[in-house]
Amino acid sequence: MKLRTLPIEFQQALPVMAQIQASGYEAYFVGGSVRDVLLGHPIHDVDIATSAFPAEIKAIFPRTVDVGIEHGTVLVLTDEEQYEITTFRTESTYQDFRRPDHVSFVRSLAEDLKRRDFTINAFAVQEDGTVIDLFEGLVDLEAKILRAVGNPHERFHEDALRMMRGLRFVSQLGFTFENETFAAILENHALLGKISVERIFIEFTKLLLGDYRKDAIEKFVATECYQYCPGLREKGAGLLSFAALPTEVFATEEAAWTVLLDQLGLSEELVGPFLRQWKVSNEFRRTCRELLWGLQKRKQASFTPMELYRLQEKALVVESLLPYYGLKTHFANVKAGLEALPIHSLSELGVNGHDLLQHFQKKPGIWLKEVLAYLEQAVVEKNCQNEKVPLLALATAYLKEQG
Ligand code: ATP
Ligand code: MG
Question: What is the mean pLDDT of residues 214-237?
Answer without folding.
Answer: 97
